[in-house]
Amino acid sequence: DLAADQRFPAGAPLEVLTNPVPAAATGAEPASLTPQKTDRPVGYVALVRHAAQSLYAPTRLIPGSATIARAPLPFHDAIDLVRGGHIEALPVGAWRAKGPNGPLWLAAIKLRNTLARPVTLNPRDLRGQWRAASFQHARLGATGDPTDTTTVYLVADQRPEAALAPFVPKQAEVTR
Prior knowledge:
176 residues, alpha+beta
C-alpha cells in the first residue's frame, strides 16, 4: 500500500520490480502473479507458513500448493490441549502435506487465556505427540484484553486426532 503526504519531500521515483514472465506463460495473468506449484516435499516451516497465510491473509494472497491441502478436522469442540486448565483451546483447521519422510499433518488451534493475568505460553505445556509447535504470539494478555487470544500451529506425522489422543472429545472418536 502506498500513500502520499505533503509533509515529506519527494524522493526517487518508485520502481516496481516483478519476476520476468517466462515465454511459455499464457493466460490473462502474468506468471509472477500466479501461485507457483511444485511437487517437492515441504518442511515444518513451509507448512506452518501456509496454514497461517490460509487463515489470516487476504484471499488474493492465500498460497496455492500441490503438496499442501486442507484436511478434515473431525472435532470442533474445546479440547484439553494446554496443561494447567487456564487456556481454552478450540480447533480451527487442519492441513496435510507431503513431507520429506511421509505425510505431515498440521492442526491450527485457537488459544484464549481465561486468567485475569497475562500468560507466557510454553510448548512443553502442550499435550499430544507433536513434531513441532509454533505460536502466533507466545504471550497472551489477561482475559478480556484484545491480546488474550492467539493461534498455535501443531505439526505431527499422524492425524491431529491421533496426535491428541486421549485428549480429543469423545464424539471425534465415533466419527473416525
